[in-house]
Amino acid sequence: MKKHFFLLSALLFVSFIANAQLIKDRFSGKVTMGFDLYTDINTGDKYENFNLRNINQGFGTYLTYNFPMGESKHTVSLGAGASFHNYYMKKAWLASPHDYAITFEEAETKRSKLALAYFDIPLEVNFRIADKFKISFGAKVSFLMGSSSKVIGYVYGDGDKWNVRYNNINALESITYSTFARVGYRCVNLFVGYQFNNSFKKDRGPQIMPFSIGIGIRPF
Questions:
Q1: 155-178: pLDDT as tens digits
Q2: What angle separates helix 20-27 from helix 2-18, to the nearest 10 degrees?
């Protein structure tokens, strides 16, 4: 499922890039399209047999409509988008993805991860400085679209390397809430975000509350 979301998002992004000048000319700054690349750092509590690596790469894309703030160049933006988070576990794997409470088991793994895909509704305030610099603050509500886990490793204790994948992980929250900020120059910006509720339901899985940091591009 995540692969389908990735392909759809990539196709939409390429389509927007190809038509960026046409859209820019037609809407004259009323629409903003962007793409973010970031890494997630988990700020949640420790959980048994669950430990993430330092780099957990993810990405997001969005399209917003900009409402001017009076006669100024500052705007308030509302839109829609998608975000994708990958959480890579160290020497552990999700052995019971469909149980009421999620548990992890220790194993010798080559790769082990959780992948979560969300549909986002962002609200953002943008302050433009001298036409080239922009500072933005915002919040978003994210709705879970899909989830999966994948492990490559010696997980069953039989000496064989297994490649195991599960979809539709249980006990995940269907809605998450985040805040974010950007500091940009022309079409490039630095991006930080923080999700302030857990990705899993209370007492039914690990506490995943990512702090995201990365770089963004806004062709228009």
A1: 988 889 999 999 999 999 999 999
A2: 70
Q: What is the pTM of this model?
A: 0.86
> What are the φ/ψ torsions at residue 22 (nearest 5 degrees)?
-60, -45
With beta carbons less than 8 A apart as the criterion, state whether 149 and 115 touch: yes
Q: How many CB atoms lie within 10 A of CB 40?
A: 23
Separation between Cα atoms, residue 178 and residue 182, nearest integer Å? 14
Q: Is 103 exposed, middle or buried (0-12, 13-18, 19+ CB in 10 A)?
A: middle
Alpha-helical (H) ranges within 2-104 are 2-18, 20-27
Q: Report whether pLDDT(117) > 80.
A: yes
Return the CATH fold of 2-217. Lipocalin (2.40.128)
Torsion of CA 46, 52, 57, 58, to 10 degrees: -40
- Contact criterion met (CB below 8 Å) for 95 and 103: yes
The one-character DSSP state at 157 is S
Report how far residue 93's alpha carbon sits from residue 108's, in angstroms, rounded to the nearest whole number: 9
Cα 70 to Cα 13: distance, rounded to the nearest angstrom? 31
Amino acid making up residue 179: T
| C-alpha dihedral, 24 to 28 to 33 to 34, nearest 10° | 90
- Token pair for 111: 């790769």
Burial class (CB in 10 A: 0-12, 13-18, 19+), 159: exposed
Q: Are strands 75-88 and 108-129 parallel, antiparallel or unpaired?
A: antiparallel
Query: Looking at residues 92-108, what average pLDDT do you find?
Result: 92
Q: Where are the domains positioned within the chain? A: 2-217
